[in-house]
Amino acid sequence: MSAPTPPRLLVVDDEPDLRTLYELTLLREGYDVESAETVEEAWAALQSRRFQLLITDMRLPDGTGLDLLRRLEDAGRGEKGIVITAYGSAENAVEALKAGAYDYLTKPVDLRQFRAVVASALGRTPSDGARAARPAEARHALPPRRALDRMVGDSVALQQVRSLVGKVARSMAPVLVHGESGTGKELVARAIHELSPRHAMPFVAVNCGAIPETLLEAEFFGYRRGAFTGAVEDREGFFQAAQGGTLFLDEIGDLPLAMQSKLLRAVQERAVRPLGAPAELAVNVRIVSATHKDLAAEVHAGRFRQDLFYRLNVIEIVVPPLRERLGDLPAIAAAVLERIAGDAGVSPPPVLSAEALAHLSRYAFPGNVRELENLLHRAVTLAGGSVVECRDLGLPEVAFADSAHLDLEMAVPDPGRAAATEVPLPSDLAAYLDQVEREILERALERHRYNRTAAGASLGLSLRQMRYRMARLGIGSGDD
Ligand SMILES: Nc1ncnc2c1ncn2[C@@H]1O[C@H](COP(=O)(O)OP(=O)(O)OP(=O)(O)O)[C@@H](O)[C@H]1O
């Protein structure tokens, strides 16, 4: 997969408040963070995978941070270590450096310094706490007012989406965008924002499924200095960051019930109260949310609050899967190839051979446009020339085991027929299902910046189950 893997960090502290504070700070810097409370728990994590950096408290219930550093050294491991020592204990700090620590910090930890030391250990420049450093936002950053242009395709379905976007952009009404993963829901949300009177104000994209439950409130509403142990500076939340603009809540169906209540309150009151703040702050934010889940069914099952559902779903925009609007495929593929060529400074852009296009048109695209983009990126690299052929696409043959052929000319949106003919019966069900599972796991990992815990949780799997499945299917977890 093409997304760069963020550095993976292990935080070890037995004090929940401090652990939360470190995790929150590091997540905001775009790192992939895991945590442990004891030497043994940390060691178990270190044995099962590689990290780039270990950040550990000196005093732990079953030993010290130095024990961890020594074990790493004995095992010839390359992880750097930062040790957090009690205020005034110079010996401890020296001992830590002697034991091979990259650096040490003393309590109470100054977060600015904390970020700087971590960045330096990883050979990076700290983001200075800027929101722009959030990978989720940076990943999709587009020039202003470009989202609508970027939304390629003339199928009836897409024309309807475009016309709805134009209509709803003017109002403040909350919009719920519904569609499978990778269909372009975020593009729709950005287009609404860019066409709205708020276009000069911020667009803040939040993947609700990627934030650990314990950090949700602080992330959404911010916190004040002193709100919890170690909160030494004020931090704004997503609502404040989106002030005057649009807050895009992706994967809203993944929000835990407790947080749903708090969000409902913020939306109703148009005010938020940062953790530790004496009073509420008025916020003027337009909410656009998105989900691939059937939220009505989630309400029915008691997993989503009905009152919040009604609040967010004032206007619904449905983005159909790519396989139901295959007529858009040639134009989207051409636009994507143009973009890839533009990024690489290549001209003219490569084109798909007729057979390659026909081949693609028989594929079900479970990952929709995003999958098409990834596939074309890979294909262009393999093709190395100006024409992308069938063999460069690397589509699993199992997906085509049945020779059902769909003529491109006939590829008009027709959900009924699509379901019946475009997913051929496989000749090897086990291999086919493995391939489907592999793609789902890879997409979830990519979406959650290769954090297996979050990716697994988004699929209803524990970390253990996730690891097992990845190992079975031979999926690497980035750098280990
Ligand atoms: N109609 C389209 N034309 C061209 N590119 C598109 C189109 N729709 C989506 N894309 C591209 O496909 C990729 C996925 O789109 P986007 O992130 O908006 O999907 P999503 O539904 O929000 O995905 P997820 O549910 O996984 O968050 C983006 O790079 C986007 O630019």
TrEMBL record:
Record's keyword terms, sorted: ATP-binding, DNA-binding, Nucleotide-binding, Phosphoprotein, Transcription, Transcription regulation
Domain of life: Bacteria
Native organism taxonomy: Bacteria, Pseudomonadati, Pseudomonadota, Betaproteobacteria, Burkholderiales
Protein name per UniProt: Two-component system response regulator PilR
Organism: Rubrivivax gelatinosus (strain NBRC 100245 / IL144)
Domain Sigma-54 factor interaction residue range list: 151-381
GO molecular function: ATP binding; sequence-specific DNA binding
One Pfam family named in its UniProt record: Sigma54_activat
Record GO biological process: phosphorelay signal transduction system; regulation of DNA-templated transcription
Modified sites of kind 4-aspartylphosphate: D57
SUPFAM superfamilies attached to this UniProt entry: CheY-like, Homeodomain-like, P-loop containing nucleoside triphosphate hydrolases
Residues of the Response regulatory domain: 8-122
